[in-house]
Structure formats: structure tokens, C-alpha cells
TrEMBL record:
Keywords: Membrane, Transmembrane, Transmembrane helix. InterPro entries: DUF1468. Pfam families: TctB. Residues 10-157 form the DUF1468 domain. This is Tripartite tricarboxylate transporter TctB family protein. The chain crosses the membrane at residues 9-29, 41-65, 86-110, 130-148.
Amino acid sequence: MFIKKYGDMIVGGFFMILSAGMMIMAKMLPKSTIMEIGPDFMPMCIGIVTFVLAAALAFFNLKNLKMRTAEAEKMEKEDLDYKRMLISFILILVYVYLLQPVGFIVTTILYLPFQMYVLAPDEKKTKKDIVQLAVTSVVFTFIVFFLFRYGFKIILPAGIFTINL
């Protein structure tokens, strides 16, 4: 009951502390003399976004604390889906292991539909939804690739393909 009632506030506080530490450590990185964007750019962006989202999580949980207390009292036993969690963990490990040798584009296009399928609700696993997941993964992969390549000027692992776009 304690986790159901205060869990989001604890997680929000933890991630606020973690992201603040990440931003402090990012500022300690040496400045780049070659590029406009230094090595601190991405860690700062991630730290700021994480801090804002963690603060929102903690704030909204605090705001709805009475409702959460009533929910926690009604629930007898939590439904935890260990099968999906284990499959997600294995998929992430395979993705990280294959990212460098196979490359970002191929690995991400293959990983995302499987991960989204595992996390999708059971009623969202029709043939139409699977096609939508595949299209989403291709579009998202190329958006991220071009954003990093041309926006941030960061080259992602090419792997088996050399891409000169």
C-alpha cells in the first residue's frame, strides 16, 4: 500500500536528484574547441527533460494523494506482469548488444516493433496494429537518425551499412 500511495513521489524525487547530478556532472565536461555543440549538450538536454518530467510526476502525485490513498485501500494485490518485463529486458539487452555491429538504423527498426508489441495491451495486437507499429518504428528511426546526424552533428553507429546522407 505504501508503494501504491507514495511510489510516484519517491520515483519523482529520485529522478530529480539523479538528473540534477547528471546536469552538474555534464557541466564539468571539457568544452569542445572543434564543434559548436560540446560534450555537455546531450547530457544537459536529457537532464533537463528528466528533471521536468520527474517534478511533474511528483507534483501530480502529491496533488492527487487523496485519490491515490482511496485506490490503494481498494486494491488487494497488485497485478505485476513479470513476463512482459522479462521479455522487455531481454529485448533491450539484444538491442544494446547488436547496436554497434549491425548499426543504429537496422537494429532500431527491428527492435522497436517487437518492444512496442510486448508493451501493447492485449486488445491492440491485431494485424492492423502490428503494421502500424512497424511503420511507426521506421518513421521514428529515421527521424531520430536525421536529427542526430544533422541537428546535433552526432554520428550514430553505422554497422553493416555505411550511410552518407
